[in-house]
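quick one
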Amino acid sequence: MDTPVNAAEPDKTVKANTVKPKTVKIVEVGPRDGLQNEKALIDTSTKRQFIEKLADAGLKFIEVTSFVSPKAVPQLADALELVRSLPPREGVHYSALVPNLKGLERALESGIREIAVFTAASNSFTQNNINMTIEESLAAFSPVVDRARREGLFVRGYISTAFYCPFEGKIEKEPVLAVCQRLLEMGVQELSIGDTIGQAVPDDVRATMAHLLQFLPVSQVAMHFHDTNGLAIENVMASLDLGISIFDSSAGGLGGCPYAPGASGNLSTDALVHFLHGQGIQTGVDEIKLAEASGLIRQVIQQTDGLVEDIGNLEYLGQVTYPPASTL
Ligand code: HMG
Ligand code: MG
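structure w/ 3-hydroxy-3-methylglutaryl-coenzyme A:
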């Protein structure tokens, strides 16, 4: 066969010395990232039932809520009550987002043992999401991480808009790396790199992550994909090839961020687990029981809301009037 004209050169920036993982850690974010975007309020006992079904399915890391301002995310205003209602289960780690010291106080009061701080690689997004610049967010997190670590909590750090920002477009890899390094220096133990609005394609993932992994320990790196364009699984494949073995996903593919126009559903845990099992990679999750958990929450949302909120790309691709970054 003739060699095609202009055949693409292999990407020499990607290190080929990585081995695909045999097991994967899944961080289930459905009860937090999945529900935060749902407008109709879901009662605490239904959330608890959903979380228990996720744990029954074998999910060991479940982000259950956020200790953020209830004005910012009314759906998660019951965080304290919800966490207190969860029976401890051996081997199951519950976690929650915390944006500031006030959130940490509430988290400690609830008894939760794992928290996540959250910033981004774009200033416009952090301004929109948490009303701070990146620098201000890092300054705010420093005492939070410090105190949390002294209390013996596990601390994760999210870096949103690591590939594309709804306000600034394509994000370069250097600012992503800089934020990751600052978080690690602060004492954050796991980094979750977010394609918040689901615009990344596998080449974006390879380019950014191959660069980051020259400086960051792969064992501390998780990927957080949203599935706006149906490419989340392809992006997982690209990440696995780089040796990454921690993935965030949301049961039933629920999700989005109320402060990120264009953020649609997260990578579905159901699809992720099915895909990984098909590749011979272990997750410890029972697909049938997981389908029961996803079915429960989708049914509840459809009954309360009539609609599962997963529209995204239309907003990103032109229907949003982007506020100029300077006014954010
Ligand atoms: P602010 O208005 O600048 O802060 O909000 P403030 O300190 O002036 O507080 C305003 C009010 O909120 C005050 O109450 C505070 O007491 C209260 P008031 O005096 O008006 O009655 N407050 C709190 N209440 C409870 N718990 C708290 C808390 N903090 C303040 N922790 C703030 C700044 C950061 C608080 C706010 O913007 C906020 O909570 N934002 C959260 C936004 C959010 O949750 N976004 C979604 C999560 S990020 C995401 O989805 C992306 C991710 O999935 C990864 C990816 O996809 O890339 C993680
Ligand atoms: Mg998210």
